[in-house]
User: What shape does this take?
Amino acid sequence: MPSATELIAANLAQVRGRIAAAAARAGRSADEVQLVAVTKYVGREEIEALLAAGCRDLGESRPQDLWDKAAALDGRDLRWHLIGHLQRNKVRRTLPYVHLLHSVDSRRLLDELDREAARRGQPPDLLLEVNVSREATKTGLAEAEAENLLASWSFPHLRLRGLMGMATQGSTPDEARREFAHLRSLHAKWRPAAPRPEDFRELSMGMSGDFEAAILEGATIVRVGSALFEGLTP
Ligand SMILES: *Cc1c(COP(=O)(O)O)cnc(C)c1O
Assistant: This one.
C-alpha cells in the first residue's frame, strides 16, 4: 500500500495533469491557472505531504481553522487563502495570515476590512463572492449588490483582485459550466468599473467536481480539496 505522502503526491500530480489538459483544451497556458489546495478536511501530516510535493497555496474555509494551521506551520513557505465566510469580529485576527480573501460577501464586511487595513497600513487582496448559482440559499453577493458595491466603491485600503463563485451543488458539468460562463461575463463587464481595472484579474471558480469546466470558462484560480485526498483512510 502506498503511504499517505505518496498517495497525496500522486493525487496532486493527477490534479495538475487535469488542470494542464483543461487549460490546453481552452487554448490557455497551465501557468495561468493557480491551484489552491483546500486543506479543510485534513491535518498537519497531509499538509506536510502537500508541501513536500510542491504545493504552496493552501485554502481553509473557517477562520479559526486557518489561524490554527497557520500558527502550526509558521515560518513555512506557503500562502493561506480564506475561501469561506469571514465574520466581522474575526477580521483583525485573520488579516495577518491571509494572502487572498476569496469570499467577501457584504458591504459591512468591506467596511470592517477597510478600517482594519487602514490601521495595519497594508492593503489586503480580496475577491467579491458572487452568487451565480440557481439556489436561493447559497452564500455570496447578489449580482445587483455586487454591481452597486463596484459603482460606489469606498474602500481605499483594499485591493480588489476579482470575483469568486461556486456552481450549484449537484450540477452536471454542463450546468456548472454555464454558471461559470456567467461569472466570467460579469467579470468582463465589471472590470472597467473596478477601482483598479489592472488589478481586477482573478476569477476563482472550480472545485474537485467541476474545475475543468471552470478552466474552460476562464478560471485563474481553482480551489481543489477532496480530489487531493482520495484514497486516504480517515
Ligand atoms: C470545500 C471547498 C472547496 C473544495 O471542495 P472540494 O469539492 O473538496 O474540492 C472549494 N471552495 C470552497 C468555497 C469550499 O468550501
Summary: The first strand starts at residue 34 and ends at 38.
